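Quick sanity check, Helix-turn-helix domain containing protein:
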Amino acid sequence: MRRDGAANREKVLLAAEHVFAEKGAAASTDEVAQRAGVSIATVFRNFATKQDLIEATACRYLEKLTAQALALAESQDAGKAFASLMRSLAAAGPVKMTLLDLLPPHDDDGQGLSRPVTEAADAFRAALEGALHRAQAAGAARLDVTGDDVSLLLRALAYATDLSEGEALDRAVGIVLDGLGVPR
């Protein structure tokens, strides 16, 4: 792909992330093109259908969260790194859940999702569980907590959170961290 084509694709994905987060299923590819500053033809040259655009946007977002989780996992203080990751993921949760809700129905094993989305979701989950296990090994998280527990708590926070509720979200994440035995 040419450099300008790759740049346009990235602009479209970034715009799609914001438009889909704001409008959900009501978002249009025209709005994405307008926000990206490209023509609708550019959007469809990169993504044949709106569903292809949604899947690519979800993959990109999950990959971004995975990279963030892996970078935080490199921190010397596993407990603080996990607490920071939880705060970051709770703040990112509403966008992530909106994108994932736009995907076709699937079962708990990811059946029904495209391979790239499934792989991105699996990588994200592995990074999250790795950060949890590191915190547990350092004595900075309860040993009985599982990755499923953390995922459920993050989903609950995501569905209950309005992006404008910064202070309330901080308190809620603090309560969750206390319950997980993670120092703040």
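Posting the structure with no commentary besides this: Residues 51-180 form a domain with the Tetracycline Repressor; domain 2 fold (CATH 1.10.357.10).
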